[in-house]
């Protein structure tokens, strides 16, 4: 049902959304987690990733690194000791890479927040700042755990993955971290989360749209918007991401329509007045 929203949105709705989102470029240089969702009407579109040449839409460093393990179950022609050694080494490399990533994200986040105004955050930068904060808090304990346990860290964190930074979660732990649907729906009703979604929708549209999101970002965006278990989404047999992208595109089109209706009811000059406060 949601994936049909995009086709039912009027041409004027889509046009308004694209034009109005060009005004969302600059936030006022405040904390990116508390950036208002409406901005001065004459704000110019920021330069591509602030001239850095980086991807302005995706934040790949905020996701776990690749886990490279030997084939499982153990091949018959491989010695058991060798297989165990390679498995342990794979986990150790994964956690070391994750630790370096969290530290790197922390330093980049600090540098971004220290940027002179106007800060002009891209979506990738804004999401990096948001996602780096909780990971940084867990970094000291994670470093101690990794130092003591090494490749046996998965055994220690098997029942308590919440003690790990999000970047250090194994694939199955990422799924375990996802809240049940009922809890996700309750979270969606909070004002803070709704404000975040409105901001993220605007950022996605402004910096390239759903088509520019990588697979990890699409899946996270759908889960944050309360979509049910994505394992149940059927593939079209050609592009496994076509259906999820279509669903997310429909959700964003619905949000554009809501913004259009709100803009029609808003008195003239209300957007600029609010942004100047």
Describe this structure in words.
The protein is globular. It is 55% helix and 0% strand. 26% of the residues are buried. Helix 2 (11-21) packs across helix 10 (242-265), helix 3 (80-113) crosses helix 4 (123-149) and helix 9 crosses helix 10. It has helices spanning 5-8, 11-21, 80-113, 123-149, 153-156, 171-177, 181-188, 191-206, 215-224, 242-265, 270-276. The longest helix is centred in the middle third of the chain and has 34 residues, at 80-113. It is an all-alpha fold. The chain starts with a helix and ends with a helix.
The quaternary organization reads as single chain
Helix and strand composition category: mainly alpha
Summarize the main sheet: none
Rg result: 21 Å
Low-confidence stretches: 1-51, 271-277
Overall average residue pLDDT: 77
Fraction of helical residues:
40-55%
User: What is the number of beta strands?
Assistant: 0
Strand content: under 5%
Distance between the termini: 39 Å
User: Number of helical segments?
Assistant: 11
Write the layout of secondary structure elements.
Layout: H1 5-8, H2 11-21, H3 80-113, H4 123-149, H5 153-156, H6 171-177, H7 181-188, H8 191-206, H9 215-224, H10 242-265, H11 270-276
Helix pairs in contact: 2-10, 3-4, 9-10
List keywords for this structure.
disordered N terminus, about 280 residues, mainly alpha, about 0% strand, 11 helices, globular
